[in-house]
Recover the amino acids of this structure.
């Protein structure tokens, strides 16, 4: 150690160089090449509520597939990165997947913002991306989104269902409260845009931060406007806070509507009884028991629910299903046309009647989203669980 | 509550709420959240008083206190869970001081700032590991039915928050005025060399200041969780606003911290109620900037003393 | 410029030239080019920050705000008003300079923790504005489809071209800053750093110089922001948060804030660590990151770059003891 002076510094440098060299050594090639699928989710950071269940679902599904023999005998290699809800990281992760891991298809990211940040990268590299985020901007204008698909229903679908339901009940004046992050602002855009077209008047437009500890100020303002219903659009603790504050302020005569992000029995638990009577649009994946036997999605939904609950010992989230849909589509494409990005893209674009967790998808060259507002059912919280809303 | 009465209350909720009713509601919300800012500010003040440095990890103490208590409250009676939470986070404060602050006795401002920031990142990461990213809830200490006053609905937990902060302030003031260790801690801030000469163990005082700060932060976190839930990354914003309150009240002044915290909370709440709910976070910071530019010694700080302090 | 600096500059230039050639040959690290573009963009900010912190002895925990101002000005002008990207970049720099001056004059009268908090508060306020002014900035949903830069009519697409563009600008900035350091202004700065009281007594206009450097560092951050906007094509307020401001300060401190080379080293190391080398740790990476920061700050308060003179010093001592 003498030559390096203060020994430990030399040792650190040496170890560092060793690690660098090792990371450059190419992998050993086996008999049947594994098929790779790249995945990038917001496992940590502000959007981890979306990314964590997506990661779990993807890994669980990948294991299942490999247990059953893989894709036509090829092992499925899921290369998964965490973008930490950060755009720069997401971009670098996607570049890594494309250049270093050489994946023919990518699933994710979890958020619309991060998806928009990587569209150019996938376009240039000509690698298809199946996003789990919901903004309509991800897939329109479709002429500039040739390589991008999404499996999450758009916020516009969710809002349409809500307004339809409220109109039927004779409610014309609504107050809107949204969280000021990507999820909330996307919902807010749609809520404000679709209201006039569906005969609804928005009398209040409140916003709050994702880390706010109290929403009574916003609710009190809403109380002063004479709105007949409150629509809250957020995920995370604020969606629980909103419900609790609504109950505590004695505003239960005003109908309370949550976004589809509320969909997890865990949220009902956390709200501790305050959620009774709350309405929200849910994807069918969250209400397997309420589905009639004739529903085409019932089979896959029941299987996924059972598997997730058994493995993670907690109820489904609203978002894990997107990863299921994205990965299943990717795997199907690989099985049909092999690891060729161009062929995979063409396959995805023409896939009709794909029965997934989010709905029954019908893709086309003009529609890379594949869903309509029927992906949602209106439900109400009754006795601590979901029931179909009349 | 009898059916008819609650129905009447709901009916009044449907009618446009009067301006005074709104005002009362905002005031109470503001006071609730303001007492938390005040307690965080107290934590900053204690460490500042003894060491003249700012501990950027103060917010994490609050977060940890809330999470530990939410966890313990599931299988321990509330008072015991509270003590466990405070004790656990105090231990964290002590560890932090011993391992990261003590070795850096003569470091520059920037180094100390960076170190406490690094510690806050670590604490956040550890919390994420133990508790995950989900929010945690806890039952309010005395029931979920809100109290109705002047047309506004106040949660009973609010009174717990106010009560506990009041007791903390009282105890602290007594401690620093009367107790030997308390006076010793103040002496260290003024002149560590002189303090050492007189036989005060400066190192011990610094350790105590961190322990005390952590304990107060933990108490604040534990008492606010039933109202607003707690999760692993709540610390940063709380710390920032608490610091704003500390500066507004004059760094080092305990009563200043509490009053400034309340002012901040109420200002925020009024802004959210009457101006714009999106910009309410900016209120706390604008106030902070104003104070810093116009009167850095804060509302209650001593102007001369603040000029000769090390930082 | 001193011989030492010229030598280091040439060495860096050489490394920069070899780098793309090397990585495009080796598949496993071919994406490193993308990372290096970001390293370059961030370096523009940290070089300015290093001048402010190391030479002028001030601190700023709000530089992400200037980065964001440049990025959003470029983005908004290009997307909404179809202004030429280069013009928008200049506009961004001007706007940032004005804001930095307005904020700097009152803030730089403060010292130490107070200054840190003032800059922190400023940074958070600007971030809130980005978030709330939805009409202008797109709010949390972000601003998308920002066009790319073009040089002489040729649009710059792809990592390699951006790499060349960004690092050319970084080298220009380095040369400029080195000249500032070795000029009268630089000497005045160092005197302020050593003792503001003494400098004041000697007639150095401390206030003016501090604000000057603050504005300079802000303008550099703004230019970096514009480059970022055109490279990524999409902006959202969460990229310009206080977390990023703190990361920037970390880069400067870890590398060594008393030298511009330190800023470069720290930026390079932390960007690669944060985005590449900690991947093996998966979920643990945030813990490892925090631990590394803590360790470096405590063991090497003058940053990693201080290892070099120490080794040289060690070498000298050995030679002396052997003779």
């Amino acid at each position: 150690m003498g030559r390096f002076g203060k020994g430990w510094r030399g040792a650190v440098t040496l170890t560092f160089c060793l690690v660098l060299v090792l990371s450059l050594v190419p992998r050993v090639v086996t008999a049947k090449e594994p098929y790779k699928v790249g995945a990038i989710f917001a496992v940590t950071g502000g959007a981890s509520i979306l990314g964590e269940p997506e990661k779990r679902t993807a890994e669980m599904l990948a294991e299942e597939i490999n247990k059953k023999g893989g894709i036509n005998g090829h092992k499925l290699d899921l290369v998964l990165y965490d973008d930490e809800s950060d755009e720069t990281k997401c971009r670098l992760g996607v570049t890594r997947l494309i250049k270093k891991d050489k994946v023919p298809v990518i699933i994710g990211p979890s958020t619309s913002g991060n998806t928009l940040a990587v569209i150019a990268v996938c376009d240039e590299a000509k690698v298809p991306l199946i996003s789990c985020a919901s903004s309509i901007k991800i897939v329109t204008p479709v002429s500039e989104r040739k390589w991008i698909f999404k499996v999450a229903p758009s916020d516009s679908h969710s809002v349409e269902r809500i307004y339809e339901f409220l109109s039927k009940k004779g409610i014309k004046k609504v107050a809107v409260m949204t969280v000021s992050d990507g999820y909330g602002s996307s919902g807010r855009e749609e809520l404000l845009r679709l209201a006039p077209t569906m005969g609804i008047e928005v009398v209040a437009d409140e916003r709050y931060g994702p880390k706010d500890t109290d929403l009574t100020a916003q609710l009190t303002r809403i109380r002063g406007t004479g709105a007949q219903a409150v629509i809250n659009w957020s995920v995370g603790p604020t969606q629980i806070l909103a419900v609790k504050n609504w109950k505590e302020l004695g505003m239960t005569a005003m109908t309370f509507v949550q976004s589809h992000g509320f969909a997890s029995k865990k949220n009902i638990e956390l709200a501790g009884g305050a959620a009774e009577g709350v309405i929200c649009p849910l994807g069918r994946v969250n209400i397997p028991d309420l589905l009639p036997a004739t529903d085409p999605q019932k089979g896959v939904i029941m299987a996924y629910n059972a598997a997730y609950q058994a493995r993670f010992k907690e109820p489904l989230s609203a978002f894990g299903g997107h990863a299921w849909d994205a990965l299943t589509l990717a795997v199907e494409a690989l099985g049909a046309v092999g690891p060729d990005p161009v062929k995979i893209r063409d396959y995805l674009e023409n896939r009709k009647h794909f029965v997934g967790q989010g709905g029954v998808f019908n893709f086309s060259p003009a529609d890379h989203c594949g869903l309509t507002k029927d992906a949602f059912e209106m439900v109400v919280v009754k006795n601590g669980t979901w029931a179909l809303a009349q | 509550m009898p059916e008819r009465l609650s129905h009447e209350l709901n009916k009044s909720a449907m009618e446009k709420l009067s301006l005074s009713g709104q005002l009362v509601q905002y005031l109470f919300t503001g006071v609730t959240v303001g007492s938390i800012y005040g307690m965080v500010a107290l934590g900053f003040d204690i460490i500042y008083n003894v060491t003249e440095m700012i501990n950027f990890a103060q917010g994490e103490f609050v977060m940890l206190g809330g999470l530990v208590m939410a966890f313990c409250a599931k299988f321990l009676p509330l008072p015991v869970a509270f003590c466990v939470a405070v004790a656990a986070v105090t231990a964290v404060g002590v560890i932090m001081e011993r391992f990261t602050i003590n070795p850096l006795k003569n470091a520059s401002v920037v180094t100390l700032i960076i170190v406490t920031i690094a510690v806050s990142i670590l604490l956040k990461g550890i919390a994420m590991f133990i508790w995950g990213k989900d929010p945690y809830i806890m039952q309010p200490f005395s029931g979920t039915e809100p109290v109705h006053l002047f047309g506004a609905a106040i949660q009973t937990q609010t009174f717990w928050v106010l009560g506990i902060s009041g007791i903390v302030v009282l105890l602290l003031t007594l401690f620093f005025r009367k107790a030997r260790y308390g006076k010793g801690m103040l002496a260290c801030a003024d002149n560590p060399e002189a303090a050492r000469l007189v036989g005060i163990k400066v190192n011990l005082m610094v350790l105590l200041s961190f322990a005390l700060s952590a304990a107060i932060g933990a108490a604040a976190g534990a008492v606010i969780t039933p109202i607003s839930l707690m999760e692993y990354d709540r610390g940063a914003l709380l710390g920032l606003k608490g610091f704003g309150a500390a500066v507004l009240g004059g760094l080092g002044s305990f009563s200043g911290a509490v009053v400034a915290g309340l002012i901040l909370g109420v200002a925020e709440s009024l802004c959210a109620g009457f101006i714009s709910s999106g910009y309410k976070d900016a209120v706390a910071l604008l106030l902070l900037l104003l104070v810093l530019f116009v009167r850095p010694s804060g509302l209650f700080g001593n102007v001369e003393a603040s000029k000769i302090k090390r930082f | 410029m001193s011989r030492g600096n010229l030598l280091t500059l040439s060495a860096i230039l050489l490394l920069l030239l070899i780098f793309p050639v090397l990585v495009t040959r080796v598949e496993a690290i071919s994406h490193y080019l993308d990372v290096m573009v970001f390293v370059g963009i961030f370096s523009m900010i940290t070089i300015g920050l290093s001048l402010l912190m190391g030479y002028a002895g001030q601190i700023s925990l709000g530089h992400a705000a200037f980065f964001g101002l440049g990025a959003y000005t470029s983005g908004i002008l290009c997307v909404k008003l179809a202004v030429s990207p280069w013009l928008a970049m200049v506009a961004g720099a001007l706007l940032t300079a004005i804001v930095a001056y307005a904020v700097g004059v009152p803030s730089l009268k403060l010292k130490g923790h107070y200054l840190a908090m003032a800059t922190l508060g400023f940074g958070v306020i600007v971030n809130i504005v980005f978030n709330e002014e939805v009409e202008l900035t797109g709010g949390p949903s972000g601003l998308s489809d920002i066009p790319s830069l073009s040089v002489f009519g040729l649009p710059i697409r792809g990592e390699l071209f951006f790499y060349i563009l960004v690092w050319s600008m970084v080298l220009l900035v380095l040369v400029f800053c080195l000249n500032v350091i070795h000029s009268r202004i630089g000497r005045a700065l160092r005197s302020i750093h050593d003792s503001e009281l003494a400098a004041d007594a000697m007639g150095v206009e401390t206030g003016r110089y501090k604000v000057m450097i603050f504005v300079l560092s802000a303008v550099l951050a703004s230019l970096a922001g514009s480059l970022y906007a055109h490279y990524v094509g999409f902006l959202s307020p969460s990229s310009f948060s206080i977390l990023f401001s703190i990361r920037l300060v970390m880069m400067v401190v870890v590398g060594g804030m008393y030298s511009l080379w330190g800023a470069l080293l720290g930026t390079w190391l932390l960007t690669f660590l944060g985005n590449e080398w900690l991947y093996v740790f998966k979920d643990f990476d945030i813990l490892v990151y925090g631990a590394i920061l803590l360790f470096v700050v405590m063991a090497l308060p003058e940053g990693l770059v201080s290892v070099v003179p120490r080794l040289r010093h060690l070498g000298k001592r050995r030679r002396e003891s052997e003779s």
